[in-house]
Amino acid sequence: MRHVYECPVRWADLDMLNHVNNVTYVDYLQEARVDMLRTHAPDTRAHDLAGSPTEGLVVVSHDITYLAPIAPRTAPIAIEVWVTEVRAATVTMAYEIFDEPSDGGERVVHARAQTVLTPFVFAEERPRRLTAAEKDALSVFLEESPSPRPERSEPRHLEAGHYPLHVRFSDVDVYGHVNNVKYFEYFQEARIPVVERISAGEDHSGVGVVVARKEVDYLRPIHFRAEPYDVWSWVSRVGSRSVTVESEIRDGDTLLSRAKVVMVFFDPLTQRSATPPESLMTKLREFAALSA
User: Fold this and answer.
1) How far apart are CA 204 and CA 279, in angstroms?
2) What is this structure's pTM?
């Protein structure tokens, strides 16, 4: 069975291209996931998986592929959510964000995504195994399919790729951790100045970038504090019309989270991918060579 959630689209969700910002999609996924658990939970234990003061599901990883932009709208966007895998201590959920034309036309899919989650005991700061009752509750939504593991390049800590991350008090959820949605913002905020430093002096005003795919792994919680965390970003691949940037968030020697983002160069006028200036691509390749 698949659960369908009608997600409101807010004006504040839009970016400078007048599309829903890529970061906001993961917020939509969270809303759909919580709505599924709260709507269909057959008992208190399963309902608690949606979030209680003591226990809940925390995100281990997100993987989102962006297929078509979501334009400004007053109608909600539809999100299907279901379960693809239930293991001893994790559950994998899949999503499709789409529009279904009222005239019976073909579905327009805006994004597909996958989230791996684990039950977590907040008072003890530890994950736990799923109970038999929880597995039974989740199996109602099960459509088994393999969950491929993302590949990562070796990290590179280059000065040009460093960004000091300051956590805001409002980033922290009721469990005392930075909410998983905020990590997408952190990686975006760190990535933008790195790309600006690489492309300094280049005139690419007619070409923008859009995110085609984003993978985020959550390894340890991030907490609110006065001192900044370190974000390191590097270029792992340069294509003809795309660039892949990988990043990690660290607290000293401790790895907290890592991400891989594929960005495609984009012409705002034609709303299609575009070939960027060769001089810009040369600079990206040079930075990628330093990152190799």
Assistant:
1) 10
2) 0.88
